[in-house]
Amino acid sequence: MEKIKVGIIGPGNIGQDLLVKIGRSELLEVACIVSAIESDNIKRVRAQGYDASSEGIDYMIDKYKDEIKIVFDCTSAAGHMSHAPKLKEAGMYAIDLTPAAVGPYCVPAINLNEGFLNKENVNLVTCAGQATAPMVEAINAVADVSYAEIVSSISSKSAGPGTRANIDEFTVTTKKALETVGGADKAKVIIILNPAEPPILMRNTIYTKVKNPDMDTIRKAAFDCLERVQKYVPGYRFLLEPIIQDDIVTMMVEVEGLGDYLPVYSGNLDIINAAALHIAEEKAKLLMGGAK
Question: How far apart are CA 37 and CA 53, in angstroms?
Fold first, then answer.
């Protein structure tokens, strides 16, 4: 079976990890990876036998316009703002792993469907959005969430230059996703870059104020949600199962990475890559004549 060709913009940590994950896919193959500069990472990818260029997105589009069907943008919010219109014009399906939010938010456990697969551009929100929006949405569906607050703590070592440059966009984008995709009436987001040694796993504390505090129903919804996310993020699990006090439901989820290119503590990067890969494979099935 001929695989669907994909491209990667940005050979940083996320791009390198995606390269490994896509290498295991039965549906996808990397045709090209590009960067804006001639970096050690682009040299490393080239040495592995990939077509890797420091001439940026224009190189990818000029050479592969009729071949590459899906492109992962692993750069920055500002970078994707300039890349998005070019990918649209070239007819390449853009999976945006930055907080740019040019396209609609896609959290596979909540809203991945054929409608999203037929759009030109989808946004992966943020790592915290992928980790927490599913739980907020699950609780909202059965208990009506009036307010959601999350505290996402990640190892400082797993926050690269892109993450640090986009901290403001991170909190704004995640907040919007908790409201628009998660269904909370209002939301607040806090991120902590934890310098602890040894590095901690990604941990997300989720507080929700609910209007219908039926704990049995809430727990069932949360565990059902856990199973949906674990289908594409096996390291996603409860650190603290849902508890309730009055009308406040509290839980903690942590994410352990697969340890492909990145250390296992970099669950924050692993979860967004796992979600991106899941979307790309569903898109590939559609392109091959199937349906989700």
Answer: 9
Residue 82: CATH number of its domain: 3.40.50.720
Cα–Cα distance, 99 to 172 (Å, whole number): 9
Sheet (strand 28-34) strand order? 52-53, 28-34, 4-9, 70-73, 93-96, 121-123
Predicted confidence at residue 163, as pLDDT, reads 77
Q: Are 99 and 166 in contact (CB under 8 A)?
A: yes
Look up 106 and say whether it is catalytic. no
**From CA 3, how far away is CA 28, in angstroms rounded?**
5
Task: Judge whether 292 lies within some domain.
Answer: no
Which residues span the domain enclosing 98? 4-125+271-287
| DSSP state letter for 33 | E
Q: Would you state the pLDDT for residue 168? A: 84
- At 76 the pLDDT is 87
- Which residue among 32, 74, 106, 127 is the active-site one? 127
263 preceded by a cis bond (ω within 30 of 0): no
pTM confidence score: 0.94
Number of domains in the chain: 2
Confidence (pLDDT) at 290: 67
> How far is Cα 291 from Cα 287, in angstroms, rounded to an integer?
9
Shared domain check, 79 and 134: no
Give one DSSP letter per residue of 142-185, joined into a string.
HH-EEEEEEEEEEEGGG--HHHHHTHHHHHHHHHHHHHHTS--S
Which residue stretches of the chain have pLDDT < 70? 290-292
